[in-house]
């Protein structure tokens, strides 16, 4: 299955999950992490989904699936073990031109949810075109060893640097080479080891000619104020 990889912005957007089992729960959790407003349609819920409902994190329709439940939604996931119902969900969503994913049924999908690894704002997605979710999962597990939790704060820090540089010289032709040199520098190692003198030296070497001293001091304080 040929696909076009894309990251969707669904913050505060209404999304529907049909199915309240363990797979549905996992899909709901992923949507919540992405900031979506999630509605679940199911006769029953897992304890985890019940907890999310009682906390007000999701909306719950204790009902059978009906096409009118798609009204106002921007994305649909079918997570049931009923092939006929899954076909109905897919057909109804596609008639409304809504992106739809039916778990373990690539032929009924207009998009595939990749295996993903999250480290703060860093998201690494792995897709196999629906041919082998097991391989995608294995690759994700292998990547966990290469991209540890430190990549979240590291990316945040790179973003802070980028913001300060762009505020001084937006659209400058040397910006991209500068950012490339930074990510190839020992910056991440200095952050992980909390080596203040080393980090100060890196910031002064790469950013000293661009940023005023107060910006460098601010960046250094930011680096070591993180938990």
Task: Summarize it.
The chain is α/β, with parallel strands linked by helices and 227 residues long. Helices cover 46% and strands 13% of the residues.
Please provide a written account of the structure.
The structure is a single chain. The chain has 227 residues and is an alpha/beta fold. It has two domains: 100 residues, 3-Layer(aba) Sandwich (Rossmann fold); 73 residues, no CATH class. The strands form two sheets. It has a five-stranded parallel beta sheet with strand order 3-2-1-4-5, with helices on both faces. The chain has a two-stranded antiparallel ribbon with strand order 6-7. Helix 3 links the parallel strand 4 and strand 5. Helix 5 packs antiparallel against helix 6 and helix 5 runs antiparallel to helix 9. The radius of gyration is 22 Å and the shape is elongated. The mean pLDDT is 95.
């Amino acid at each position: 299955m040929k696909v076009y990889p894309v990251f969707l912005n669904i913050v505060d957007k209404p999304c529907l999950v049909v199915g309240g089992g363990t797979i549905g729960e996992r899909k709901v959790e992923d949507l919540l992490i992405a900031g979506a407003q999630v509605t679940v349609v199911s006769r029953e819920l897992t304890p985890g989904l019940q907890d999310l409902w009682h906390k007000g994190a999701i909306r719950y329709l204790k009902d059978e699936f009906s096409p009118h439940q798609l009204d106002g939604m921007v994305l649909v996931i079918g997570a049931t073990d009923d092939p006929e119902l899954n076909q109905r969900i897919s057909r109804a969503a596609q008639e409304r031109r809504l992106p739809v994913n039916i778990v373990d049924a690539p032929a009924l999908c207009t998009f595939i949810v990749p295996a993903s690894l999250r480290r703060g704002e860093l998201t690494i997605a792995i897709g196999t075109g629906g041919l082998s979710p097991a391989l995608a999962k294995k690759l994700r597990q292998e990547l966990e060893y290469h991209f540890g939790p430190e990549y979240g704060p590291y990316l945040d820090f790179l973003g802070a640097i980028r913001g300060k540089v762009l505020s001084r010289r937006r659209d400058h032709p040397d910006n991209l080479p500068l950012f490339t040199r930074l990510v190839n520098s020992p910056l991440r190692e200095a952050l992980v080891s909390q080596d203040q003198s080393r980090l100060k030296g890196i910031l002064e070497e790469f950013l000293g000619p661009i940023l005023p001293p107060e910006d460098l001091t601010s960046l250094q304080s930011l680096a070591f104020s993180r938990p």
